[in-house]
């Protein structure tokens, strides 16, 4: 029998709701950020009119206006589609994208009713494997959308998405294994804690300094996994009209993007947790702050004060990484499909394998010397 207290149940539910709430807000915020950044790069204005009351606020009201438009737009279903799968397809990416937020480590631990509460809703020894599993399932929505639309362009887009996922999932998985060798664990919380230390006396002990090649492979792979430019071959307006999205409109169309942005957010959280110390502040670890502040404030108060600090640090790192994704989108042109496959199978996969072997050998020499 499992000994689960009401405190743990309530904290788990609250952490799940926090992850879903943040994941759901990513799409409207990022749509505004991408438009504004695109406008800056292309030397134009972008959305800057819609605000609140008489305050324009750089067009921050535009996502709300877009949401209202999509909610009340006519929901047209083409007569020739496979209706059940056509309706189901947009639900899968958004469900997977929001469900995977339960694996986000928001902080270390807090004390509630003299109980230690882990700030990861679903605390698993292999947390990032859960994220990989959910991200892999999200492609079923894209594939179903392409097939159920009964449209050749849509079908090609769905098939491209499936092939792209298979091609880059392998390299992405292989790029993570060196970190398992280095940290000696599959647990995200333990990995983050070990990255709070100092490397060579002055650098934060981040995974990116231990495995830079793995980081580059992982970044490229998650760009392809989330269908971000220059890897959005599943849509590819110049070739496939809009790919798997061709027959979709209104809210069903927006659900695909909500799922895509939620998955992009979670993948950025995973990247930050694996390579940039997660919620840990560089050079000022939570363990150090806890030891310093506890004699003055007590452990309970100190842990509660460190909770918002950890969330702010985590989200700051994620925001910087997502902004870099926006920069890449409007800087690098879209690949051809043969270039996409060549990059995945001929370059990334062999490099990931060689990196894995070298890391295994070096780690074994260091640990067992």
Report on this model:
The two termini are 43 Å apart. With 369 residues, the chain is mainly α. The strands form two sheets. Strands 1-2 form a two-stranded antiparallel ribbon. A two-stranded antiparallel sheet has the order 3-4. The chain has helices at 6-41, 62-72, 83-88, 91-99, 127-137, 139-148, 152-183, 188-194, 207-210, 212-225, 237-240, 250-275, 286-297, 299-329, 337-368, and strands spanning 105-112, 115-120, 198-199, 203-204. Helices cover 66% and strands 5% of the residues.
Quick rundown:
This protein is mainly alpha-helical and 369 residues long.
Shape: globular
H/E series: HHHHEEHHHHEEHHHHHHH
Count of distinct strands: 4
Q: What fraction of the residues are assigned to beta strands by DSSP? A: under 5%
Strand sequence of the main sheet, in spatial order? 1-2
What can be said about the biggest beta sheet?
Answer: 2 strands, antiparallel
Instruction: Tell me, rounded to a whole number, the average pLDDT.
Output: 84
Q: Return the structural class.
A: mainly alpha
Compute the number of structural domains.
1
In angstroms, what separates the terminal alpha carbons?
Answer: 43 Å
SS element count, helices: 15
Q: Helical amount among residues, as a percent range?
A: 55-70%
Uncertain runs are: none
Radius of gyration: 22 Å
Observed structural traits:
15 helices, 369 residues, two-stranded antiparallel ribbon, single chain, two-stranded antiparallel sheet, mainly alpha
